[in-house]
Design brief:
- By secondary structure, the chain is α/β, with parallel strands linked by helices.
- The protein is about 25% helix and about 25% strand.
- The chain folds into 2 domains: about 200 residues, Quinone Oxidoreductase, Chain A, domain 1, CATH 3.90.180; about 120 residues, Rossmann fold (3-Layer(aba) Sandwich).
- The protein is built from 10 helices and 16 strands.
- It is globular.
- It starts with a strand and ends with a strand.
Length: about 325
């Protein structure tokens, strides 16, 4: 099979790899049919990652099941499924409590798309082995477009977690979104659908702001470091200076969710945070726990995640198109 491999800054190429095989009766083999880069994939391709190449890249896709082990009961060959980015068993104490990104049955940080916690391959590969099929694979509900849901493996479901529980706890909350990519736009869509009274989206790119405005958000190129009284701030830039601005824009006892991958150091306004009483969470997402709720919202008709898809491209275009840092391209193909 072919495996899309990150080889150097701004460069990816197809490399041949052995076809994956079932290694236990709980495994499955899947073939991605609609895959898209996560914001962290773009950072890796830009040379900001901390793992030296080469390695297989990609961790967001809808896939078709090709083969299953004898003990797998939740899916069948031919099913379309969402495959979460992190490897999780579903039965350890962490998994049962929803901490699927911290599964104790596999090495720490085991994931697709980077050789962290073992080598699991990438979701821009022709075929992928899923070690705990019943725990990991989520059938794509009928009526949902695989292209629109290609990001459910990570960014779409992460965006649900960044804002939906907060709006349930604080109905009508004011939401600030400081972003550079798809996560912030998905948050705008979800926040308005779930009743945020005000959404301000901050991004220097006018084409991104136009999408946010289509979701009913106010927009700005930048935000001044003054108090704006937001109940919730979402930062998805990976820049500590932007995270600091988001924190300074919170109302007393406000909450900030940082979904940016902070590969570079920086300083936070700790005294200001102390005086305001804000809460900051910086975390990888336990995405498998949130995928069902995020898919339920997607099929409710309240949201339109397809607006964030910037390009629909052929699978064979991956090596040339992926390094271009398009907003949210989705690469599609049929299984062999």
């Amino acid at each position: 099979m072919r495996e899309l491999t990150y080889v150097s800054r701004h460069t990816a190429e197809w490399r041949e790899a052995p076809d994956p095989t079932l290694q236990s009766d709980v495994d499955a083999i899947v073939a991605p049919v609609a895959a898209t880069p996560c914001d962290v994939d773009s950072a890796i391709l830009a040379g900001h990652g901390f793992i030296a190449p080469p390695f297989a890249i990609g961790h967001e896709c809808v896939a078709r099941v090709v083969d299953i082990g004898e003990a797998v009961t939740g899916v069948r060959p031919g099913d379309l499924v969402v495959l979460p980015w992190s490897i999780n068993c579903g039965t350890c104490d962490h998994c049962r409590s929803g901490l699927t990104a911290h599964c104790t049955s596999v090495p720490h940080m085991a994931m697709y798309g980077a050789p962290i916690g073992g080598t699991w391959g990438g979701l821009f590969s022709d075929l992928v082995r899923v070690p705990y099929a019943d725990a990991m694979l989520v059938p794509l509900p009928s009526g949902l477009d695989p292209v629109a849901m290609a990001s459910a493996s990570d960014n779409w479901s992460l965006s649900w977690r960044l804002v939906a529980p907060h709006l349930k706890a604080r109905p009508g909350a004011r939401v600030l979104v400081v972003a550079r990519g798809s996560i912030g736009l998905y948050v705008c869509d979800i926040a308005r659908a779930l009743g945020a009274s005000d959404v301000l989206y901050v991004d220097p790119k006018p084409e991104h702001r136009a999408i946010a405005e289509s979701y009913g958000a106010r927009t700005a190129e930048a935000i001044e470091p003054i108090r704006h009284g937001f109940d919730l701030a979402i930062e998805a830039t990976g820049r500590v200076d932007q995270l600091a601005l988001a924190l300074k824009s919170l109302a007393p006892e406000g909450f900030c969710e940082s979904a940016g991958n902070h590969f570079r150091p920086g300083e936070l306004p700790l005294l200001d945070m102390y005086l305001t009483g804000v809460t900051l969470r910086v975390a990888r997402d336990n995405v498998r726990h949130h995928i069902p709720d995020a898919l339920d919202l997607a099929r409710s008709g309240q949201v339109t995640p397809e607006r964030v898809v910037s390009h629909v491209l052929d699978w064979d275009d991956l090596p040339d198109a992926l390094p271009q840092r398009l907003l949210k391209p989705v690469f599609v193909r049929e299984t062999r």
